[in-house]
Amino acid sequence: AGDAKPRVQASSDALAHLDDRGTTTDRVAEPMPDLDDLSAFRDLAVQVARAAGRMIREAHAQRAGGGDGGELSVAVESKGSEQGAPAAEASVDLVTATDKACEELIIGTIRERFPKHCFIGEESTFAGGGAADAPLELGEQPTWIIDPLDGTTNFVHGYWPVTVSIGLAVRGELVLGVIFNPLLDEMCVATKGGGATLNGRPIRVGGAAGVGEALVVNNLGASRNPAMNTLATARIGALLQASLRGLRNSGSAAQNMIDVAAGRLDAYFEDGFGGPWDVAAGYVIVHEAGGVFRDHLGGPFTLRAGKGQVLCGNAAVVEDIARVLRSVEPGGGQARG
Q: Where on this chain does Mg(2+) bind (predicted)?
């Protein structure tokens, strides 16, 4: 079957917090921009991604050099479970002052230019109590979906897979993706129908025909639930038994999607990525690079308000990886949708 677009429907309000249904609160609409006008949105997204990237790079350099402010910038707060929480609820999700400062910069800059646009940001959403486990409903208003610093744990440890991820939906459809790795100075950009580029050069997904030819990346996510740990290791074991060529784990969903879109990795899968901000930009980028986006078992991809599942790459390798993952799925692992 062909790749389906994510089920996304309604939204609004500047710096919106998701409510318990995964929606945002409507406000007075402004005239809709033509999709042909995406260049202005694209240029602004690139501008703010670079600005946030400078903040990340400076904090990274200060930390590495022991300069003033470096330790403060990577001081860790947890969005995960409290110490001593039940094992089934255990998680290790982190946030730093740099995450928050970058999100404020990105949203503030875009809002100044487009004051009636809507915003879904990782840190503001968690500050508002998190998001429900439901499909994300996006409305007519342009809605920016932002991860200001994807790969926070990497950032805390000084590891390079750290990205700024900015997606845009117009009329309920994802149409723009910008991902920037400031430590590698790599800017990946895509608009619907306009192709995908990495530092200005067109990119294309790899050509692996199946598991045996594939270099695959899997993030294990923040959950430390024992049952989830067991299932995650069973999936990896099944892929290895199927003669997977290679396996990587980067800790950044957005970096994974740059690498898949550029053909450096053949596929990325994850069960439990943090929220829509992790994948909104990458969805557009992978599609425009010739790839498909599915859930981890090969069913239709749904952009969710909370944690979600993804498997992306070229159509053939995605189908074969999904086949292997379904073989160890509890209850027989039927593809959804």
A: 122, 147, 149-150, 278
| Strand runs labelled E in the chain | 76-78, 94-96, 118-121, 143-150, 163-170, 173-181, 186-191, 195-198, 201-202, 215-218, 246-248, 267-273, 292-294, 308-313
Q: Which secondary-structure segment (H or E) carries 109?
A: helix 97-113
The answer on whether 247 is annotated among ligand-binding residues is no
Q: What pLDDT sits at residue 22?
A: 43
Global pTM reads: 0.84
Where residue 25 falls among pLDDT bands split at 50, 70, 90? very low
pLDDT recorded at residue 122: 84
CA separation, residue 72 to residues 29, 98, 142, 225 (Å)? 40, 9, 34, 30
Complete domains list, the chain, with CATH:
35-202 (3.30.540.10), 211-331 (3.40.190.80)
Phi, psi angle pair for 283, to nearest 5°: -55, -50
Q: Does residue 223 have a pLDDT over 80?
A: no
Residue 64: per-residue pLDDT: 77
Q: Are 206 and 59 in contact (CB under 8 A)?
A: no
Residue 149 annotated as part of some ligand binding site: yes
| pLDDT value for 225 | 86
98: left (phi over 0), alpha (psi -120 to 50) or beta: alpha
Say if residue 235's pLDDT is above 60.
Answer: yes
∠ CA 186-306-220, nearest 5°, is: 60
Is 271 assigned a ligand-binding role in the annotation?
Answer: no
Tokens found for residue 11: 């939204």
State the chain's maximal CA–CA distance in angstroms: 55
Is 266 annotated to bind ligand? no
How crowded is the C-beta side of 233, counted as CA atoms within 13 Å? 6
Confidence of residue 335 (pLDDT cuts 50, 70, 90): low
